[in-house]
Amino acid sequence: MLPLLFRTMNISILGTRGVPARYGGFETLADQLSTRLVRRGHQVTVYCRKPFVAPDDEFDHRIRRVILPTISNEHLDTLFHTFISVLHVLFTHAEVLLICNVANSPMAWIPRLAGKPTALNVDGLDRKRRKWNVLGQWFLHFCEGLAVFTPTRLITDAGTIRSYFQNRYHKTSEMIAYGAEPLSTDSDLSKFGLSSRHYILYVARLEPENNPELVIRAYRDVVADWPLVIVGGNPYRPAYVQHLKSIADKRVIFTGPVYGDDYWKLQNNAGLFVFAGEIGGIHPALVEAMATRNAVLYLDTPTNHETTGGCGISFPAEPRGLAEKLDQLIASPDQVDDLRERAQRFARENYDWEKIVDQYERLFEGMLR
After folding, report:
1. How far apart are the first and last CA of the chain?
2. 116, part of any domain
3. pTM of the model
4. What's the CATH code of the domain at 41?
5. Tens digit of pLDDT for each residue in 99-148?
6. Where would I find the H helices in the chain?
7. N or C: which end of the chain has fewer CB within 10 A?
Protein backbone atom coordinates (compact mmCIF):
# COMPACT_ATOMS: atom_id res chain seq x y z
CA MET A 1 0.00 0.00 0.00
CA LEU A 2 1.25 3.47 -0.83
CA PRO A 3 1.73 5.79 2.15
CA LEU A 4 -1.02 8.28 2.82
CA LEU A 5 1.34 11.12 3.64
CA PHE A 6 3.96 12.98 1.64
CA ARG A 7 6.10 13.87 4.64
CA THR A 8 7.82 11.57 7.07
CA MET A 9 7.32 11.79 10.81
CA ASN A 10 9.54 10.97 13.76
CA ILE A 11 7.36 8.86 16.05
CA SER A 12 8.12 7.34 19.46
CA ILE A 13 6.11 4.58 21.14
CA LEU A 14 6.23 4.38 24.95
CA GLY A 15 4.55 2.37 27.69
CA THR A 16 4.92 -1.15 26.28
CA ARG A 17 7.44 -3.86 27.06
CA GLY A 18 8.91 -3.40 23.62
CA VAL A 19 9.48 -5.20 20.34
CA PRO A 20 9.36 -7.92 19.26
CA ALA A 21 6.00 -8.63 20.93
CA ARG A 22 6.39 -11.05 23.83
CA TYR A 23 3.71 -10.15 26.33
CA GLY A 24 0.28 -8.81 25.40
CA GLY A 25 -1.87 -6.59 23.25
CA PHE A 26 0.10 -3.36 23.61
CA GLU A 27 3.27 -5.15 22.58
CA THR A 28 1.51 -6.56 19.51
CA LEU A 29 0.35 -3.06 18.66
CA ALA A 30 3.83 -1.58 19.07
CA ASP A 31 5.34 -4.34 16.94
CA GLN A 32 2.86 -4.14 14.08
CA LEU A 33 2.58 -0.36 14.09
CA SER A 34 6.31 0.34 14.19
CA THR A 35 7.09 -2.25 11.51
CA ARG A 36 4.50 -0.89 9.11
CA LEU A 37 5.29 2.76 9.76
CA VAL A 38 8.99 2.33 8.98
CA ARG A 39 8.00 0.58 5.75
CA ARG A 40 6.14 3.77 4.86
CA GLY A 41 9.27 5.81 5.42
CA HIS A 42 8.67 7.15 8.92
CA GLN A 43 11.27 7.14 11.69
CA VAL A 44 10.03 5.09 14.63
CA THR A 45 11.52 4.56 18.08
CA VAL A 46 10.11 1.98 20.49
CA TYR A 47 11.03 2.19 24.18
CA CYS A 48 11.71 -1.31 25.55
CA ARG A 49 12.07 -2.82 29.02
CA LYS A 50 15.35 -4.62 29.62
CA PRO A 51 13.93 -7.96 30.93
CA PHE A 52 11.69 -8.41 27.87
CA VAL A 53 14.15 -7.86 24.99
CA ALA A 54 17.55 -9.21 23.97
CA PRO A 55 20.34 -7.98 21.64
CA ASP A 56 19.81 -10.89 19.21
CA ASP A 57 16.06 -10.35 18.80
CA GLU A 58 14.63 -10.64 15.30
CA PHE A 59 12.81 -7.46 14.29
CA ASP A 60 12.89 -4.83 11.54
CA HIS A 61 16.15 -3.04 12.30
CA ARG A 62 14.87 0.16 10.71
CA ILE A 63 13.05 0.49 14.05
CA ARG A 64 15.15 2.15 16.71
CA ARG A 65 14.90 0.48 20.10
CA VAL A 66 15.74 2.34 23.29
CA ILE A 67 16.23 -0.27 26.00
CA LEU A 68 15.93 1.10 29.52
CA PRO A 69 15.90 -0.61 32.93
CA THR A 70 12.76 -1.16 34.96
CA ILE A 71 11.60 -2.48 38.32
CA SER A 72 10.52 -6.12 38.08
CA ASN A 73 7.42 -5.56 40.15
CA GLU A 74 3.90 -5.98 38.79
CA HIS A 75 2.71 -2.73 40.36
CA LEU A 76 5.72 -0.51 39.63
CA ASP A 77 7.08 -1.89 36.35
CA THR A 78 4.96 0.16 33.93
CA LEU A 79 5.06 3.43 35.87
CA PHE A 80 8.80 3.42 36.49
CA HIS A 81 9.79 2.48 32.96
CA THR A 82 7.43 4.96 31.31
CA PHE A 83 8.65 7.74 33.60
CA ILE A 84 12.29 7.29 32.61
CA SER A 85 11.21 6.83 28.97
CA VAL A 86 9.38 10.15 29.08
CA LEU A 87 12.45 11.88 30.50
CA HIS A 88 14.58 10.35 27.75
CA VAL A 89 12.24 11.25 24.91
CA LEU A 90 12.29 14.93 25.89
CA PHE A 91 15.85 15.16 24.58
CA THR A 92 15.26 13.37 21.27
CA HIS A 93 14.01 14.47 17.85
CA ALA A 94 10.66 12.72 18.30
CA GLU A 95 7.84 14.83 16.90
CA VAL A 96 4.81 12.87 18.09
CA LEU A 97 4.36 10.21 20.78
CA LEU A 98 2.08 7.22 21.25
CA ILE A 99 1.85 6.25 24.93
CA CYS A 100 0.12 2.98 25.83
CA ASN A 101 -1.74 2.11 29.04
CA VAL A 102 -4.13 4.25 31.06
CA ALA A 103 -1.75 3.96 34.06
CA ASN A 104 0.65 6.23 32.16
CA SER A 105 -1.82 9.12 31.92
CA PRO A 106 -0.13 11.04 34.80
CA MET A 107 2.93 11.43 32.53
CA ALA A 108 1.25 12.12 29.18
CA TRP A 109 1.40 15.90 29.66
CA ILE A 110 5.16 16.12 30.23
CA PRO A 111 6.29 15.74 26.57
CA ARG A 112 3.72 18.35 25.55
CA LEU A 113 5.71 20.94 27.50
CA ALA A 114 8.54 20.30 25.04
CA GLY A 115 6.22 20.67 22.05
CA LYS A 116 5.75 16.93 21.52
CA PRO A 117 2.04 16.04 21.19
CA THR A 118 0.97 12.76 22.80
CA ALA A 119 -1.69 10.19 21.98
CA LEU A 120 -2.69 7.91 24.88
CA ASN A 121 -4.18 4.49 24.16
CA VAL A 122 -6.07 3.45 27.29
CA ASP A 123 -7.08 -0.06 26.16
CA GLY A 124 -9.97 -1.23 28.41
CA LEU A 125 -10.99 -0.53 31.98
CA ASP A 126 -7.82 -1.77 33.65
CA ARG A 127 -9.00 -0.89 37.15
CA LYS A 128 -11.48 -3.79 37.01
CA ARG A 129 -8.76 -6.42 36.82
CA ARG A 130 -9.01 -8.71 39.82
CA LYS A 131 -5.30 -8.57 40.58
CA TRP A 132 -5.53 -4.98 41.85
CA ASN A 133 -6.14 -4.25 45.51
CA VAL A 134 -8.26 -1.30 46.63
CA LEU A 135 -5.35 1.13 46.33
CA GLY A 136 -4.51 -0.09 42.83
CA GLN A 137 -8.13 0.21 41.72
CA TRP A 138 -8.33 3.73 43.12
CA PHE A 139 -5.12 4.77 41.36
CA LEU A 140 -6.28 3.42 37.99
CA HIS A 141 -9.65 5.10 38.43
CA PHE A 142 -7.77 8.33 39.08
CA CYS A 143 -5.70 7.69 35.92
CA GLU A 144 -8.92 7.34 33.90
CA GLY A 145 -9.90 10.85 34.90
CA LEU A 146 -6.44 12.22 34.05
CA ALA A 147 -6.55 10.51 30.64
CA VAL A 148 -9.26 12.93 29.64
CA PHE A 149 -6.92 15.93 30.11
CA THR A 150 -3.24 14.99 29.96
CA PRO A 151 -2.72 13.70 26.38
CA THR A 152 -3.27 15.60 23.18
CA ARG A 153 -5.53 12.80 21.93
CA LEU A 154 -7.24 9.90 23.69
CA ILE A 155 -7.47 6.54 21.88
CA THR A 156 -9.89 3.72 22.66
CA ASP A 157 -9.95 0.42 20.77
CA ALA A 158 -13.62 -0.55 21.08
CA GLY A 159 -16.98 1.18 20.82
CA THR A 160 -17.96 0.07 24.32
CA ILE A 161 -14.87 1.74 25.81
CA ARG A 162 -15.38 4.84 23.66
CA SER A 163 -18.96 5.11 24.94
CA TYR A 164 -17.77 4.69 28.53
CA PHE A 165 -15.44 7.69 28.28
CA GLN A 166 -18.09 9.69 26.45
CA ASN A 167 -20.81 8.97 29.01
CA ARG A 168 -18.73 9.15 32.19
CA TYR A 169 -16.26 11.91 31.33
CA HIS A 170 -17.91 13.62 28.34
CA LYS A 171 -14.72 12.96 26.39
CA THR A 172 -14.73 12.01 22.72
CA SER A 173 -11.91 9.61 21.88
CA GLU A 174 -10.35 8.37 18.67
CA MET A 175 -11.47 4.77 18.18
CA ILE A 176 -8.81 2.60 16.53
CA ALA A 177 -9.02 -1.19 16.78
CA TYR A 178 -6.30 -3.84 16.66
CA GLY A 179 -5.47 -5.69 13.47
CA ALA A 180 -4.58 -9.20 12.42
CA GLU A 181 -2.44 -10.60 9.62
CA PRO A 182 -1.99 -14.34 10.05
CA LEU A 183 1.17 -16.04 8.85
CA SER A 184 0.76 -19.02 6.55
CA THR A 185 2.16 -22.17 8.19
CA ASP A 186 2.10 -25.92 7.71
CA SER A 187 -0.04 -28.27 9.78
CA ASP A 188 2.82 -30.17 11.45
CA LEU A 189 1.87 -30.11 15.12
CA SER A 190 4.06 -33.02 16.20
CA LYS A 191 6.03 -30.65 18.47
CA PHE A 192 2.86 -30.23 20.54
CA GLY A 193 1.48 -33.76 20.10
CA LEU A 194 -1.65 -32.45 18.36
CA SER A 195 -3.71 -33.19 15.25
CA SER A 196 -4.93 -30.38 13.00
CA ARG A 197 -8.51 -29.23 13.69
CA HIS A 198 -8.86 -31.63 16.62
CA TYR A 199 -8.05 -29.48 19.64
CA ILE A 200 -9.52 -26.56 21.58
CA LEU A 201 -7.28 -23.49 21.79
CA TYR A 202 -7.18 -20.88 24.56
CA VAL A 203 -4.72 -17.97 24.25
CA ALA A 204 -4.36 -15.30 26.93
CA ARG A 205 -2.12 -14.05 29.68
CA LEU A 206 -2.96 -16.28 32.65
CA GLU A 207 -4.74 -13.69 34.78
CA PRO A 208 -7.96 -14.21 36.78
CA GLU A 209 -9.92 -11.73 34.62
CA ASN A 210 -9.11 -13.85 31.54
CA ASN A 211 -10.88 -16.75 33.29
CA PRO A 212 -8.53 -19.64 32.53
CA GLU A 213 -9.92 -21.40 35.61
CA LEU A 214 -13.45 -21.20 34.19
CA VAL A 215 -12.28 -22.76 30.93
CA ILE A 216 -10.33 -25.53 32.69
CA ARG A 217 -13.27 -26.42 34.96
CA ALA A 218 -15.67 -26.39 31.99
CA TYR A 219 -13.36 -28.68 30.03
CA ARG A 220 -13.60 -31.34 32.76
CA ASP A 221 -17.20 -31.95 31.61
CA VAL A 222 -16.41 -32.05 27.88
CA VAL A 223 -17.13 -35.54 26.55
CA ALA A 224 -15.19 -35.21 23.28
CA ASP A 225 -11.55 -36.31 23.27
CA TRP A 226 -10.12 -33.07 21.82
CA PRO A 227 -7.26 -31.75 24.00
CA LEU A 228 -7.47 -28.28 25.51
CA VAL A 229 -4.34 -26.28 24.63
CA ILE A 230 -3.62 -23.33 26.93
CA VAL A 231 -1.14 -20.84 25.49
CA GLY A 232 0.12 -18.14 27.84
CA GLY A 233 1.89 -17.48 31.08
CA ASN A 234 2.27 -14.96 33.89
CA PRO A 235 5.83 -13.88 34.79
CA TYR A 236 4.55 -11.88 37.78
CA ARG A 237 2.38 -14.63 39.34
CA PRO A 238 3.92 -18.07 38.75
CA ALA A 239 1.98 -19.45 41.73
CA TYR A 240 -1.28 -18.76 39.91
CA VAL A 241 -0.04 -20.69 36.87
CA GLN A 242 0.83 -23.63 39.13
CA HIS A 243 -2.66 -23.48 40.64
CA LEU A 244 -4.19 -23.74 37.16
CA LYS A 245 -2.04 -26.76 36.38
CA SER A 246 -3.08 -28.40 39.63
CA ILE A 247 -6.80 -28.25 38.77
CA ALA A 248 -6.42 -29.34 35.14
CA ASP A 249 -7.03 -32.91 34.01
CA LYS A 250 -4.51 -34.92 32.00
CA ARG A 251 -5.95 -33.85 28.63
CA VAL A 252 -4.95 -30.18 29.15
CA ILE A 253 -1.71 -29.08 27.49
CA PHE A 254 0.05 -26.00 28.90
CA THR A 255 2.50 -24.67 26.30
CA GLY A 256 3.55 -21.51 28.13
CA PRO A 257 3.95 -18.33 26.02
CA VAL A 258 4.34 -19.12 22.30
CA TYR A 259 5.31 -16.62 19.59
CA GLY A 260 6.15 -16.47 15.90
CA ASP A 261 5.61 -19.44 13.58
CA ASP A 262 4.61 -21.82 16.37
CA TYR A 263 1.94 -19.40 17.57
CA TRP A 264 0.41 -19.07 14.12
CA LYS A 265 0.65 -22.82 13.61
CA LEU A 266 -1.52 -23.33 16.71
CA GLN A 267 -3.99 -20.67 15.57
CA ASN A 268 -4.17 -21.91 11.96
CA ASN A 269 -4.95 -25.51 12.93
CA ALA A 270 -7.26 -25.17 15.94
CA GLY A 271 -10.62 -26.92 15.91
CA LEU A 272 -12.24 -24.34 18.21
CA PHE A 273 -11.00 -21.17 19.90
CA VAL A 274 -12.22 -20.14 23.36
CA PHE A 275 -11.90 -16.57 24.59
CA ALA A 276 -12.90 -15.90 28.19
CA GLY A 277 -11.54 -12.39 28.88
CA GLU A 278 -13.92 -10.10 30.72
CA ILE A 279 -11.82 -6.90 30.87
CA GLY A 280 -10.31 -4.78 28.14
CA GLY A 281 -11.19 -3.67 24.68
CA ILE A 282 -10.53 -5.59 21.48
CA HIS A 283 -8.22 -8.47 22.32
CA PRO A 284 -5.53 -9.35 19.72
CA ALA A 285 -5.73 -13.13 20.25
CA LEU A 286 -9.48 -13.13 19.57
CA VAL A 287 -9.06 -11.01 16.44
CA GLU A 288 -6.20 -13.26 15.28
CA ALA A 289 -8.29 -16.39 15.86
CA MET A 290 -11.04 -14.97 13.67
CA ALA A 291 -8.57 -13.94 10.97
CA THR A 292 -7.14 -17.47 10.87
CA ARG A 293 -10.62 -18.86 10.16
CA ASN A 294 -11.29 -20.26 13.61
CA ALA A 295 -14.71 -20.93 15.04
CA VAL A 296 -14.78 -18.89 18.24
CA LEU A 297 -16.63 -19.16 21.52
CA TYR A 298 -16.47 -16.03 23.63
CA LEU A 299 -17.50 -14.99 27.14
CA ASP A 300 -20.74 -13.06 26.86
CA THR A 301 -19.68 -9.43 27.36
CA PRO A 302 -20.59 -6.38 25.25
CA THR A 303 -16.99 -5.82 24.15
CA ASN A 304 -16.48 -9.44 23.11
CA HIS A 305 -19.75 -9.38 21.18
CA GLU A 306 -18.64 -6.18 19.45
CA THR A 307 -15.25 -7.69 18.60
CA THR A 308 -16.73 -10.78 16.99
CA GLY A 309 -19.53 -8.94 15.23
CA GLY A 310 -21.80 -11.77 16.31
CA CYS A 311 -19.71 -14.23 14.24
CA GLY A 312 -19.20 -16.61 17.12
CA ILE A 313 -20.96 -18.40 19.97
CA SER A 314 -21.24 -16.70 23.34
CA PHE A 315 -21.19 -18.55 26.64
CA PRO A 316 -22.11 -17.52 30.22
CA ALA A 317 -19.61 -17.11 33.04
CA GLU A 318 -20.18 -20.61 34.42
CA PRO A 319 -18.46 -23.88 33.48
CA ARG A 320 -21.47 -26.02 32.61
CA GLY A 321 -22.74 -23.65 29.91
CA LEU A 322 -19.34 -23.55 28.22
CA ALA A 323 -18.93 -27.34 28.39
CA GLU A 324 -22.30 -27.89 26.71
CA LYS A 325 -21.46 -25.50 23.89
CA LEU A 326 -18.07 -27.08 23.32
CA ASP A 327 -19.60 -30.56 23.02
CA GLN A 328 -22.37 -29.22 20.80
CA LEU A 329 -19.95 -27.60 18.36
CA ILE A 330 -17.53 -30.52 18.28
CA ALA A 331 -20.49 -32.69 17.24
CA SER A 332 -21.63 -30.17 14.56
CA PRO A 333 -18.89 -29.81 11.90
CA ASP A 334 -21.20 -27.99 9.48
CA GLN A 335 -21.95 -25.31 12.07
CA VAL A 336 -18.23 -24.99 12.83
CA ASP A 337 -17.44 -24.49 9.12
CA ASP A 338 -20.09 -21.76 8.89
CA LEU A 339 -18.70 -19.99 11.97
CA ARG A 340 -15.19 -20.15 10.51
CA GLU A 341 -16.22 -18.54 7.24
CA ARG A 342 -18.19 -15.76 8.94
CA ALA A 343 -15.42 -15.00 11.45
CA GLN A 344 -12.72 -14.74 8.79
CA ARG A 345 -14.89 -12.53 6.58
CA PHE A 346 -15.62 -10.15 9.46
CA ALA A 347 -11.94 -10.00 10.45
CA ARG A 348 -10.85 -9.19 6.91
CA GLU A 349 -13.36 -6.37 6.71
CA ASN A 350 -12.65 -4.84 10.13
CA TYR A 351 -9.19 -5.82 11.38
CA ASP A 352 -6.79 -5.29 8.51
CA TRP A 353 -3.49 -3.98 9.90
CA GLU A 354 -2.87 -1.64 6.96
CA LYS A 355 -6.21 0.07 7.58
CA ILE A 356 -5.37 0.36 11.30
CA VAL A 357 -2.00 1.95 10.47
CA ASP A 358 -3.75 4.34 8.08
CA GLN A 359 -5.82 5.55 11.03
CA TYR A 360 -2.79 6.03 13.27
CA GLU A 361 -0.94 7.81 10.48
CA ARG A 362 -3.82 10.24 9.96
CA LEU A 363 -4.08 10.78 13.72
CA PHE A 364 -0.37 11.60 14.08
CA GLU A 365 -0.46 13.94 11.10
CA GLY A 366 -3.46 15.75 12.56
CA MET A 367 -1.74 16.12 15.91
CA LEU A 368 1.29 17.70 14.26
CA ARG A 369 -0.90 20.13 12.36
Report:
1. 24
2. yes
3. 0.89
4. 3.40.50.2000
5. 999 999 999 999 999 999 999 999 766 666 667 778 878 888 899 999 99
6. 25-39, 77-89, 110-113, 134-147, 159-169, 212-219, 238-247, 260-268, 284-291, 302-308, 319-330, 333-350, 353-368
7. C
